[in-house]
Specification:
The structure holds 3 protein chains of 3 kinds. Helices cover 37% and strands 6% of the residues of chain A. Chain A is mainly α. In chain A, helix 3 crosses helix 8 and helix 7 packs antiparallel against helix 8. The longest helix of chain A has 30 residues. The two termini of chain A are 16 Å apart. In chain C, 62% of the residues lie in helices and 4% in strands. The chains are: A mainly alpha, B alpha+beta, C mainly alpha. At the A-B interface, helix 9 of A face helix 2 and helix 3 of B.
Amino acid sequence: MLGKGFAVSAVVALLVSTAPAFAASSGGELKPFSLSTDGPFGRFDAAQVQRGYKVYREVCSACHSMNLLSFRNLGQPDGPFFDAKYKNPNDNAFVKAIAKDYNINDIDTETGDVVQRPGTPADRFPNPYPNEYAARAGNGGALPPDLSVITKAREGGPAYIYSLLTGYHDVPRGLEVPAGKYYNPYMPGDLSSFWSGDKDKVPAGGFIAMAPPLVADKVSFDDGTKSTLEQQASDVVAFLDWAAEPKAGERKRTGFAVLIYLALFAGLLYASYRRVWKGVKH
Amino acid sequence: MADTVGEITPAGEDPSRRDFIHVATMAAAVGAVGSVVWPLVNQMNPSGDMLAMASLEFDLSKVADGSEVTIKWRGKPVFVRKRTPAEIAQAKADDNADLKDPAKDADRHKPGKAEWLILIGSCTHLGCVPTFGGGDWGGWFCPCHGSHYDTAGRIRKGPAPTNLALPEYAFLSDTKVKIG
Amino acid sequence: MSGHSTYEPKTGFTRWLDSRLPIIRLGYDSFVDYPTPKNLNYWYTFGGILSLCLMTQIITGIILAMHYVPHVDHAFNSVEHIMRDVNHGWLIRYVHANGASMFLFAVYMHMFRGLYYGSYKAPREVLWILGCVIYLLMMATAFMGYVLPWGQMSFHGAVVITNLLGAFPVVGESITTWLWGGFAVDNPTLNRFFSLHFLMPFMIAGVVILHVWALHVTGQNNPSGIDPKSKEDTVPFTPYATVKDGFAMVLFLILFSVFVFFQPNALGHADNYIPANPLVTPAHIVPEWYFLPFYAILRAVPDKLGGALLMFGAIGVLFVLPWLDTSKVKSLRYRPTARVFFFLFVLTCLILGWCGGELPDKMVFQVGATAAGDPIGLNFVWLSRIASAYYFAYFLIVMPVLGLVETPDAVPDSITASILDHSAEKKGLAHAG
């Protein structure tokens, strides 16, 4: 009948129904990739995220904005430069130093002119382009996406970004790549109209306007980590994944406390329930 | 709750254990509700970006002798007043007058910077913004309910209970001050 | 149902209040002394769970409205502001977003339970119809809520659904223009959707009160489908139903928490973390999971108006359900043949949900290919046609016909008798429900 087995299968059905959300995009099968923060027991690797920030700053930020991030975020709990000494991230000396290195546009309240001043922790990461049109003009018509929530905004998340960054390779013979574009097997797209080979063997992937951004030793890491392409890519993905949800650590910690409490509460309620219903046939 | 349960509990049951379980369950329910309430309340406290905008740098060279510039800090007006020697003398002279909220003029400004008076520009009565130069003591006058402040921002007459508050601030140089 | 009230005010104040506003009496009669059939199983706990869901959504929703900005330039960023800067904002937003899914999940369980045990049959037709009204309002609320974060899915979902109304002849176009407040989904649309999304939960709460009122007039149905005949058949609502509902609620909250804290985005779409861009549509546009079955019915019809009508018909048919079922027996427990059709119906709903999430031309399975290279087999659009056909056939053919031709099992005399039968039937099995 409508028993417990069915209840369980209903829950399973709900969980399975989430599967489309994970379905692969039309690009190639993603490379296996994992982060230290993965899973409910994942741990935050500040050193890796610090390296990732360096990659973002020295490479990505030339074209990509991160509009939702402020320097102070770097120093908040679970942030890469969090220091228990500074409870208020705005006081964090390291974050202040990072912010100071940037010139931020501001309005002179006396003259109304646009002036530049050194950044403060409250400032947002500056946008490399003054507006969308300038960004497109500087990138052959393509708009470099904002990276603030990029790992949440792409099917496959961190693994997709990692695969894309490390996945550039030689153009397959028979594929005509338009000027200013690059072939990437992980980029979603449909290449059939650019393919002159066997109709059934259209290569996976698509064209991307971003030139291969990372090469070995492009960024030198202060902690002595060897700067391979894969290292840079996984570090910057770790940084982007942190940036997409800086409160994820707090979320998981709270989650454990909540689940433990609810489990105990459920146990107590069940005992109560058994006592109340004792002797009543139902 | 225990009463209603009691009637149908079969005889021979240890009542203290039964009560303990129900009491523990109720306590757990209260605890659950309590811990849910905190996030719901805490969300109204200032958010991260609000806290971040808590400090402000200001260039004092914009303020002429005997005038005042009002700037916005944490959503409130801050008065930056450059006092004339006459105003300073007047304020010092009143140090021992009959004050509602006694304070020395020397404690109202940074040492050696007597000309600079930096105050939070909201009346300590109910938060209106006092007007510059008004009132019987030439400091400020609050139009809402008639509080008079002197040239050290001390309350002299009217319903306000305390002197105009001092923000946290520091001189970065002779012409630059950091508020907050 | 409950006859006269057994509430006796004990203190001076409660006596004084009782003769002026008998609100404690109302609460006592409805939630303490209220006689509840004693054979209610866990499927009957979803009612309580649903009121918990509604409360959660209203409270978290009001809080989100304190921080959210309903403007095309700020909506997306204000949601991220909630996630990043507001104290516990991430928690409140994830509870609200996943809460919608949990709410709809619970309502589906509640509806399937009603279908299985014949809770829509006389004298509970009005109770059932009020439930359908709530469901309809919930769908409208969920849809408008999904638009508010102003991501790519929000925007293009709103475009697709509002364009549906354009399918209606003559008035369609003016209705969509009126709904948009412009010539496309834009700032006026977002602003009014926010206002309506705020209003509708209170309308739901109002209909819920009517729903509970109707429930207390007719009394609860129960797994046997036999109305209580004596005091033997019932137990007081408190503590019996309260503790059982409470236990089920906590189990439900555990499932809820797993999503909120560990898989908060599993039920959403990555594209909704891209700010809305009216110039580019996401490659694969699908609604939230709880609308997928209806989306599949919509796409099963190649005609725009036909698809829209069939989709609305799929919900509309629920309203007349009490008069489509001709069986004298309420509970499917005593209708073995009807039971088979019912489980087939549940399966159909799941299949429709599956179809709604896949591209129509994708193959479910393939047996070969034509000379031109086209695949031979079953694609999703045909699967959803078959499933849609059964969806309607279940209500319009199976229900009226089966009630007349089937031979139900013997129905026990009373709830108490049914319990004895039922426990004999599942002898040896752990007895928890």
